Amino acid sequence: MSIGAFNRVDTAPGSAFFKMDKINKYYQMGEEQAHILKDIDLSLDEGEFLSVLGPSGSGKSTLMNIIGCLDVANSGRYTLRGQEIEDLTEAELARIRSREIGFIFQNSQLLPRLTAQKNVELPLIYAGVTPSERKRRAREMLERVGLSDRMGHTPNQLSGGQQQRVAIARALVGNPTLLLADEPTGALDQKTGRQVMALFKELNDEGRTIIMITHDMNIAKNARRVVHIIDGELTEGGNVNDA
Amino acid sequence: MLRSIRATFIMIGDCVRMSLANILGNRVRSFLTVLGILIGVAAVIALITTVNGFSGSLSSSFSAMGAGTLTVTVTGSDLKSGLTTQDLSELTELEAVRGVTPSVALSARISRGGSYKTNISVSGKNAFYFQENQDVVTRGRALNFTDEDNTTFVCIISPDMVEEFFYGVNPIGESLYVGGIPFTVVGLMDEDSDTSIAGLMSGSPDLLIPYTTAMKLNNANVVTSFTVYLAEGWDSDSATEALEAALDAMFSYEEDCYEIMSMSSIEDTMQSMLNMVSALLAGIASIALVVGGIGIMNMMLTTVTERTTEIGLKKALGAIPWQIQMQFLIESFLLSIIGGALGIALGLMLSLILSRVMGTGFVISTFAIALGAGFSAAVGIIFGWAPARKASRLNPIDALRSA
């Protein structure tokens, strides 16, 4: 499988690839109800690279959790590749995460005891892939992110940038519909951050759909399209390349 | 369906691998955690194996001591304080009885030349006793019917006596004073030759003399303790009944004049006492297992807290709650199984040493091993359940945010 040639989208005709319709999310905080997300509308085509830009406390983490199927909205409709993400059980949400979403977190979140290769294999364990197939795909992904000589290293033997690249390989290994990155460069220095962004662009050029959540305008503008989230309200920031 | 079963097996294999890595990655802590289980299982195994070995050697020595015999102790009635020689021969006539050996015990002052010893245990036996116990006399001759009938003053002496009074002298044919009366030494006995229950209780006598002579020395005309050898084909229960009928008649049907003990009844009593003691000890030892289980639970709860991020990450990567629960359950199961295996090894080693020290048999009890393994597996699952459930219920967002 080569990433450049990938094309797994088999969305039913007429149904959206990614569509959020009037998404609302509240949290009960004691007596008060905090309205975190307010009537969020967002749709995305396959192959897009979107940045969600917002300051801390703007609701962007909550939005990311809902996009990533870690959490569900209180109201509104969310459709991912033709599937309605509503009223699903925890196990069903887990299955969607396993198939559709590749997560990249701020601190790469690698398991310290496992080698780079084993870390990359992790999502495939829960997808029920055989060990030999897992190994093959994990090595392929590590090669793809330029870490073919670091497969047997544990995270503490890797630099921050290398760790984040392992995390990217892990996000890609299940061939997800959507790469979902939360402050992917937050823990990196500028140079390494730029390298990671270059890798994101490459992946996007190959056809990957990416949603990146960040508070940093400089990072956000790496995406082709930016949306702003402030106080739970989403405003379109336009196509970066057009701007 | 088939695919999901296969995926489950793959997943469980991975859980085992990851759990082992976690357990081995934290060796000291893991060892301390399983210590409770280890000690509990070792204690249970050592107890059961040792008691088994002990009761095995007990029953074999019991059967060597007197299978096919009954021991009668007579307390007597006001009219009749014991059995006469005539009574004994009547008992011998019974169909169930092959022979009777009276045991007349006394203690006496023994002297020869200038040396003496007091409180020497002397036992009166009959000729039948020596017929039945051929290996009692190692040199010289046994006591015979002539000695019995004529109340001769002859004796068979123990190796201790030889050393005491006949150092460097062949004792056979020499004389020895028992309470001032000269006896002729006619034979030497083997050490520990008296293997009757009476002998077990009173210790081995140093001198064997004709029982009639012993009665004379005691100024008694009755016997109060004797062993009955059962005839071929009679078991102790039916023989006891026959004997009771005869004895009741002799004591004019008065109650509580005698007591009949059979080896099997004593062995049964001993065995049930041993079983009770071992059950009690095993019960106490199993408290250690519960304590060990609590230790594992504590460790697992700590582990879940420590690995919150890992749990959140795995959930984000697509692990369903059941898979998370499985992983932690497998980990606690493995921990306690490892503890159990070490405990079994330690317990067997302990009981091997104990059996060598106590001189009892060492039999590996599969029951004990199965019990130890089963117990530790159960402890792992029971005490691992709550922490694993806690882990599986963690909210992935909260879990990831705690990093």
Query: Mean pLDDT across all residues of chain B, rounded?
Result: 84
Low-pLDDT sequence parts of chain A? 1-9
Element pattern of chain B in H and E: HHEHEEEHEHEHEEHEHEHEHHHHH
Rg of chain B, nearest Å? 34 Å
The CATH H-level homologous superfamily of chain A? P-loop containing nucleotide triphosphate hydrolases
Q: First CA to last CA of chain B: what distance?
A: 37 Å
What does this molecule look like?
- The complex is a heterodimer of chains A (243) and B (403).
- With 243 residues, chain A is α/β, with parallel strands linked by helices.
- Helix content of chain A is 32%, strand content 27%.
- Chain A has one domain (47-71, 90-239): 3-Layer(aba) Sandwich (Rossmann fold), CATH 3.40.50.300.
- Chain A has a 6-stranded mixed sheet, sandwiched between helices.
- Chain A starts with 17 loop residues before the first strand and ends with a strand.
- In chain A, 46% of the residues are buried.
- Residues 1-9 of chain A have low confidence and may be disordered.
- Chain B folds into 2 domains: 10-62 and 268-401, no CATH class; 66-262, no CATH class.
- Chain B is built from 14 helices and 11 strands.
- Chain B has a 6-stranded mixed barrel with strand order 3-4-9-6-8-7. A 4-stranded antiparallel sheet of chain B has the order 2-10-1-11.
- In chain B, helix 2 (27-66) runs antiparallel to helix 10 (263-306) and helix 2 (27-66) crosses helix 12.
- In chain B, 41% of the residues are buried.
- Classes of the chains: A alpha/beta (243), B alpha+beta (403).
- Chain A binds chain B through residues 65, 68, 70-71, 90-91, 94-95, 97-99, 103, 105, 107, 109, 111, 113-114, 122-123, 125-131, 170, 174, and chain B through 3-4, 6-8, 10-11, 13-14, 21-22, 25, 309-310, 313-323, 396-397, 400, 403.
